[in-house]
Amino acid sequence: MSVEGPVTAAGLLLGVWLSAGAALILLALLIVSKAARSMVERWRARRRDAFSPALDALIAGEPQAAARLRSRLWGDADIVEDMLVRTAAAISGDLRDELARAAADLGLTRRRIRQLRSPRIHVRAFAAERLGLLGGEEAAPPLLDALSRERSGARRAIIRALGRLRSPRALPALLRLLEYDGELPGAPVAQALLSYGEPAAPHLLRMAEAPCRGRAQALALLGQMKILDAVPILIEAMSEDPNPAAREAAAQAAGRLAHPDALAALRGALRDGAPRVRAQAAWAMGRVGDPAAAGELESALDDSDWWTRARAAQALARLGEAGLERLRRLAGGADGPKRELAAEMLAAAETGR
Amino acid sequence: MARYWVHLQSGVVGPFEAEEVVRLPGFQPQWQICPERGGGDQWAPAGEFPELRAVAAAAAPKRARVMAIDDDPSVRRVLKLRLELKGYQVALYENAPDALAALAAKDVPAPDLIICDVMMPGLDGYETCRKVRAMGAAMPFLFLTNKGASVDKVRGLEAGADDYILKPFDPHELEAKVARYVRAQPRP
C-alpha cells in the first residue's frame, strides 16, 4: 500500500502533463491554421484589388479590358472567375454577354467544360453552376451532353445552368424532360423553362393541347408565364382531361390568367370529383373576381374538403361587396365553422392580407 | 480637328502636362486621352486623373445626384460605374440606416433620385421607401429587386416607390429609367 500511493500520484501527474501538452499542441495548431487562413484571405483580397480596375474597365465598356484580367499567379483564375460570376449574376443584356466573352477569352469557360467530365460529382455540379452563370452559347452543347449521361445530383445543377443560359439549342431537350419532372413549381426543369419566358410559350402551348405526360406541367407554366393564348386549352383541359393533376394545373393557370372566359369551366371544376381540383377552382374564381360567382363559392363552403372550403372563403373576400356581404352574413350566423372562417377572412380583408 | 470642333461648340481643350481634356458646355468630361497608356487610342475613366477630377468638381452642381442602396457589392459596383459614365454623381450605401442618416444630414446635398434594393438585412426596401417619404422627400424612388410578382410590385408602389427595375438588370434599361426620372424632375 505504501508503494501504490506515490505510483498513483506520479501517474496522475504524468496524465496531467500529457493532457496539458496535448492541449497546448492543439491550441498551437489552431492558432497556426487561423493565421494561415487569414494570410490566404489577405492574399486573395490583395489579388482581388489588383484585378479590380480591370473589372471596372470591363464594366465601363473599355476595349481590351478583358486581357487585363488574365491570371498571372497561381489561384488567380479562381479569383477572377469569382469576380466575374458575382457581377454577371447581378446583370443581364449586353454587359452580361461581354463578361461571358471575357470568361471564354480567359479560358475559364473551357476549364469548367472540361470539369463536366470529372469523376467527382461535386466538381461536375460546381462546373455546371459556373457555366450557367458565366457561360455563353458555346456552353450549351457540353451541358446538354453532360445532361444525357448524368444520373447523380449534378443533374439538377446542369438543368439549372441550361435555364440560366436560355440557349435555344437546349429548349427541345428541356421540353422532353418536362414530362418526367415531378411536381410543380419547384421542379428544376419547370424553373429552367420559366426563365426562358416567351420563347418557350409556343412549345408549351403545343404540349398542352392534348392529354400527355407533361401536360400538367405545361399548363401550369403557361399560367405562370401569363400566356393568354392558353385560355381555350385550359378550358378544355379542366373539363376533359382524365388526369386530375392536369385539371388542377389548368384551374391554377386559369386563376393566374384571371380571364373571365374561364369562369364557366371553373364553375364546372368546382364540382370536380378530385378535392384538389375543386380547391384550385375556388381559388381561381376569386382571382377572376366576378361577383356572379359568389353563390357557387358560398355553396362550396359546405364542401367535404376543408381546403376547398378555405379557398372558397378566401375567394369570396376577393369578389368585392358581393362576396363581403355574404361573409358578413355568415360571420353573424349560427353555423360555427362557417362563422369562424368568415370572420377570419373578413379580418384578413380589412388588414389587407 | 478635335480642337476646331470643340471651339466651334464654344468649349475648351485643356492643355495639361501630359494629357488633354475636352470640355464642352453642358457636357461632363468623362474620358481623356492619355499618352502614357500607349497613345490616343488608350482611354481612361475621368476619375483616375486629378486634373479631370478638378474640372468635374467645378461642374459638379450641374450633375444629377443618385443615391444607390444595395447590400450586394457587385450591384453597387455596376451601378456606380455605369451611372458615373453617364455623368451622374453616385453615392453608394450598403444599408438603409446609413442612407437615411445621409438623407437627414443637413450638410449632404439631397439626391435627385434613389435606387434601392428590396431584400436587405435589417431595414428592407419597402420600409426604407416609407421612411424616405415620411421625411418629406419627393424625389423618384426606384426599386432594384428580383421580386417581380405583381403582389410585390403593388407593395412597393404602395410604399411610395415610382418604378421597378428587375434583377438581374440590364444596365441600359437602368440608365434609361434613371435618365427619364431625372429629366422629369423640376429644375431649381
Give the second-level CATH assignment, the architecture of the domain at 259-353 in chain A: Alpha Horseshoe
Q: What's the total helix number of chain A?
A: 19
Total number of helices of chain B: 7
What pattern of helices and strands is seen along the backbone of chain B? HEEEEHEHEHEHEHEH
Major β-sheet of chain B, in short? 5 strands, parallel
Question: How would you name the CATH homologous superfamily of the largest domain in chain B?
Answer: Response regulator
Largest sheet of chain A at a glance? none
Radius of gyration of chain B: 19 Å
Quick rundown:
The complex is a heterodimer of chains A (353) and B (188). Chain A is mostly helical.
Key words describing this protein structure:
heterodimer; A: 353 residues; mainly alpha; Leucine-rich Repeat Variant; B: 188 residues; alpha/beta; 2 domains; five-stranded parallel beta sheet; 9 strands; 20% strand
Secondary-structure blueprint:
The complex is a heterodimer of chains A (353) and B (188).
Chain A: H1 4-59, H2 76-90, H3 94-105, H4 108-115, H5 121-134, H6 140-149, H7 154-165, H8 171-178, H9 188-196, H10 201-208, H11 215-224, H12 231-240, H13 244-257, H14 263-269, H15 275-288, H16 294-299, H17 306-317, H18 321-331, H19 336-351
Chain B: H1 2-8, E1 12-15, E2 20-23, E3 31-33, E4 43-45, H2 50-58, E5 65-69, H3 73-85, E6 89-93, H4 96-104, E7 113-117, H5 125-134, E8 141-145, H6 150-159, E9 163-166, H7 171-184
Parallel strand pairs in B: 5-6, 5-7, 7-8, 8-9
Antiparallel strand pairs in B: 1-2, 3-4
